[in-house]
Amino acid sequence: MTIRQFTANPPDVQRVAGTAVYLASNPNLVPSRLFYNIRHYKVMHQQVIFLHVDNEEVPYIPADERLHVVGLAQGIYTVSVRFGFREQPDLSAALGGTVRYHLEIPPDATFFVARTSITGCEGVLPRWRCLLFGWMTRQSESTATYFNLPSEQVVEIGTQIRLQPR
Q1: Phi, psi of 91 (to 5 degrees)
Q2: For residue range 25-46, what is the model confidence (pLDDT) as tens digits?
Q3: What is the pLDDT of residue 126?
Q4: What single-letter DSSP state applies at residue 89?
Q5: For the chain, which has fewer Cβ within 10 Å, the N-terminal or C-terminal residue?
Q6: CA-CA distance, 142 to 18, in Å (whole number)?
Q7: 95, 101 Cβ separation under 8 angstroms
Q8: How many angstroms separate the Cα of 166 from the Cα of each of 86, 96, 118?
């Protein structure tokens, strides 16, 4: 579902106190983790932020060009953060700049991130590649660590994927 569709017709669920920050790989789509929250807990936070990170093909991004904030509806925002390829992405530091846009992200905000695990790929790849792919996936750095998010404020919502032959 697009963010535009979501804000035009938000779900009729109870809003709970707090701020939820959903990392989004696509800046135009609502992250699936929000739908999991609504489906399983039947609530949405008072302040919801869709956070998209762009890794640019320049070494550094000037601080005044790093953030872009758009208010979509009451308590719903999109935040785009840009980093150059030579920069270590630090979302905790970058999000401090949202106060310039009159958006305050409290220090106890909860960050919802995805974690995907491959449960099988027999018949799609040779067995050794399937095992190697699974091992590499398990060894990859977590999103929270990569973006320097406070680990005690991160909720990872996992998805299991089983690759199927065509």
Answers
A1: -70, -35
A2: 899 999 988 988 899 999 999 9
A3: 82
A4: -
A5: C
A6: 24
A7: no
A8: 39, 46, 17
Tokens representing 59 are 């070494």
**Placement of tokens 């905000």 in the chain:** 109
| Type of residue at 14 | Q
CA distance linking residue 55 with residue 15, whole number of Å: 33
The string of DSSP letters for 66-126 reads SEEEEEEETTEEEEEEEE-TTS---HHHHGGGGGGGT----TTPEEEEEEEEEEE-BTTB-
Residue 2 contacts residue 31 (beta carbons within 8 Å): no
* Inter-CA distances, 59 with 55, 87, 126, 147, Å: 10, 7, 38, 17
The strand ranges marked E within 110-153 are 110-120
